[in-house]
Design a protein that fits this description.
The chain contains 15 helices and no strands. It has 392 residues and is mainly α. It is globular and about 65 Å long. GO terms for molecular function: antiporter activity. Belongs to the monovalent cation:proton antiporter 2 (CPA2) transporter (TC 2.A.37) family.
């Protein structure tokens, strides 16, 4: 049944408000309430909203704003230093997680290709969960924030390469050959995007803001346009919109209105994030749970334990404190929304079957839930379970 967008918003936000109230009384994270509501009302539940694709598209804007706001809080010089350190960790940890995922999937009897895809899907941590649970204003959390963000962005780059590789392998199977330009495109285009953004900020955006700095409506429009414009430009040249939004945020941090932008956009970000987590729950097919629950639970348990251990070990080798290593590891302990994209693309190209795709999907959602509980009960977060740990 087709419903208007107004009806869909009514169902999502009224339902979220009710479940969020229950969650608050039960001292549970609001994020879980949104995912549960999506599973209940989505096409695989009561089908109140039977086509969540529009909601999913809108929800993606929340992630773009999230990365934009995070970029606003970072100084470019510190970011470059941090990325040098994070690159080795991102590469080594991704290789370890891919090998572990491949090995355990093989033990469950999946084919070599399916095991490879499952291994690739296990490499990444969730940009959305990791950033959402990260305090952005608490000064004592700056270093951890920069480290977590750097690792997630590097994983995003690796994830883009993996998605392109899957598409290229599919083309090769269809005799269209491997597109090598697509493989190296992100590595060429990212520096170009940064240079263009820096030049536009210096010679266009800052002069405009200085000239019209008394008109807040104009500044609001400029900042929104800058964020979404860079996100679209990044997408156009083969990068992710999230990377474009982050570059927009880091370059906007060079302007005198960075804090004004950060405060202005937070309510807008939260509005779209509710939609995102609802669409995440709505995308999961509850009917396939009996077929995939055992491998999904075992894989989720393995990676919830393995990821903190690996990050703690690698960070300790780079002279970070054990406490820092554990916290980064637990904050990155979940699988990524990129795993869902990998499963979707591999299924669509025939590389994996439906069961393997849903193992990836179920593992990601289980790790989303458990990792969130671990972080909000142990570390500072905007949605922490205690007032002592609650930081925005």
């Amino acid at each position: 049944m087709d419903h208007s967008i107004t009806f869909n918003f009514f169902v999502i936000f009224t339902g979220s408000a009710i479940l969020a109230t229950l969650a608050m009384f039960g001292r549970q994270p609001l994020l879980i309430a949104y995912i549960v509501l999506g599973a209940l009302l989505g096409p695989y539940g009561f089908a109140t909203i039977d086509d969540p694709s529009l909601i999913s598209d809108l929800a993606h804007i929340g992630i773009v704003f999230l990365l934009y706001l995070l970029g606003l809080d970072m100084q470019p010089a510190k970011l470059i230093t941090m990325l040098r350190k994070a690159t080795l960790i991102a590469l080594f940890s991704s290789a370890i997680f891919a090998f572990a995922g491949f090995s355990f999937a093989s033990l469950f009897g999946y084919s070599d290709i399916e095991s490879l895809v499952i291994g690739l899907a296990m490499m990444f941590s969730s940009t959305i969960i990791g950033i959402k649970l990260l305090p952005t204003t608490a000064l004592h959390h700056k270093h951890i924030g920069e480290l977590v963000t750097g690792l997630l962005l590097l994983q995003d780059l690796i994830a883009i390469l993996v998605l392109i590789a899957i598409q290229s392998l599919s083309n090769q199977a269809g005799t269209q050959g491997i597109d090598w330009w697509m493989m190296i495109q992100p590595l060429v285009m990212l520096p170009l995007l940064i240079i263009v953004a820096w030049a536009l900020i210096k010679w266009l955006i800052i002069p405009l803001l200085v000239k019209f700095d008394r008109i807040q409506e104009f500044m609001f429009l400029i900042t929104i346009g800058w964020c979404l414009g860079l996100a679209e430009l990044a997408s156009f040249i083969g990068l992710s919109q999230e990377i474009g939004a982050f570059v927009a945020g880091v370059t906007m941090a060079l302007t005198p209105i960075a804090q004004f932008v950060a405060l202005t956009l937070k309510p807008l970000r939260d509005f779209f994030l509710v939609l995102f987590f609802f669409s995440l729950g709505a995308s999961f097919n509850l009917g396939l749970l009996p077929q995939v629950w055992l491998p999904a639970i075992i894989l989720a348990a393995i990676f919830l334990i393995l990821k903190p251990l690996v990050f703690r070990f690698l960070l300790f080798k780079l002279e970070e404190s054990p406490r820092m290593g554990w916290e980064v590891g637990f904050r990155l302990g979940q699988n990524s929304e990129f795993a869902l994209l990998v499963a979707f693309l591999a299924l669509g190209t025939g590389m994996i079957g439906v069961e393997a795709a849903h193992v990836i999907q179920a593992t990601a959602i289980i790790t989303f839930l458990i990792s969130t509980y671990i972080v909000i009960s142990r570390y500072p977060s905007p949605i922490a379970m205690t007032d002592k740990l609650r930081r925005d």
